[in-house]
Amino acid sequence: MLPQIFLLLLTIATRTNQERIITTLKYSTFRVAPKVIHGNPVLKGQVPYLVSIKESSINITRAKKLWVNLCGGSIIKSTQVLTAAHCFEDKNFYYAKNFYLLRVVAGNTRNDLIDSGRTSTSEKAQWRTIVRVAIHERFNFPLNDIALVIVDTPFVFSDTVNYIIPARKLTDYPKTCIAAGFGQTGKGPEMSRELLWADIAVLSRQQCNTWWEMEMNDFICTNSQASDVGGGDSGGPLACYGTLDPNEQKGRDLLVGVVSGKNYDKTTLFTRVSAFDHWTCNLVHLLLKCALIEESNKHPTYIIKHRLLN
Fold this sequence. Notes:
single chain, signal, Thrombin, subunit H, serine-type endopeptidase activity, protease, 6-stranded antiparallel barrel
């Protein structure tokens, strides 16, 4: 009887903690304020794995539109981008249902771009159309704030476009990692025209738990006093090197976090990538099965397990 009582209390405590996180961040005015404070312009090839998920703003000509940054993301495979689920949440998940309206742009450090939006590859940029979006089935911002985007054509890897390996091990990371993105350069409304990067002070799991007064193993907390990121950089990477993660390769950054949200009296929160390793791997296998079905069947039946939207 005692173990059952303990399990009940643990379940109640877990739900209470989750509700506290949701309540604290869901209605925070800081959640949607895009910024890289005290950031530096990204050098060519510095963060080749970072992409900009763009939405069309205005028509410039009949053939071309102005495309602006909606969220960031990280290339983890030639056709797969890891980002934040809340990037697709607004207006009753409008872009989750109409993802074909968005574009994924790699290899370009400009915020606003004028282009037709057609899939193309050049030295200036690689444009891709989204063909699928998979959102974590238990997403409730900021919980499980992770999504996988599939593009129509593989990225061509080069010095300016490449992939980053996701973390797998639940561990603490070096005290300083890097984040990058577009957005405001401070508290004002002015948007950065260039991709920026910043050193981010990473807190240990114990420090994060103490700060929030609860277990925060699905998150990475950072100290935003020196430099920071925010909602406009949502979905973008927190990258580290010199970790103890078995997935890290020499000479490559490791994707440890996805920009999620922040609260004025707490810390900036990143979704901890290693906490969702099984989700990502299972989803990749599911998508592979879907692709095989598509090739052999003109009218495929999809198994919707991870809120897979296609």
